[in-house]
Amino acid sequence: MKSSKDEIIQLFFDEEAILFGHFILTSGKESDYYINVKKLITNPHALKLIARLMAEEVQKRGIAFDRVAGPELGAVPIATALALETEKPLVIVRKKPKGHGTGSQLEGEVKPGDRVLLVEDVTTTGGSVLRAAEVLERNGARIASVLVVVDREEGAEDAVGTKYPFIPLVRVSELFARREKLQEEQAK
Hints:
- By secondary structure, this protein is of the alpha/beta class.
- The protein has helices at 4-14, 37-41, 44-61, 75-86, 127-138, 156-161, 172-187; strands spanning 18-24, 30-35, 67-71, 90-93, 106-107, 115-123, 142-151, 166-171.
- The strands form two sheets. It has a six-stranded mixed sheet, sandwiched between helices.
- The chain is globular.
């Protein structure tokens, strides 16, 4: 019987959420593969599975938190699903402060001292998630942990892990191992 983690890894291939070619990443780096978690999370089954796995990881590690947060855009559906799974309030971190109304960079309430579970879809260098963490901390939050669906294993764990507990559900090396296995099966 396949584990939930094995199922998520397989879903990356079933949903064509990992592509091979030439790509420019958010970090500006060039890559010969692209992980499109947004494509994966448009599948309700995959999104529910990701939220359940994240909730299990947090529970297993004994991480206490008051709120779930995600930076726009890719992490918002993940954070929403996790908020529903854990019944914790949701906070959305905007890339920039709103140009109208309150001018806030956060949607949802953060009270001083709130422990926030920060989720992200993919990390490469960790810059995006660290910027979101800074916004939350400026508003009084404490980051309980950073959970990411896929870590590309290109520095994010070191950069984020020096400040906060860092938990990837899947590492890119696990996706490559599955790709190799699938190629071997096709060659038979």
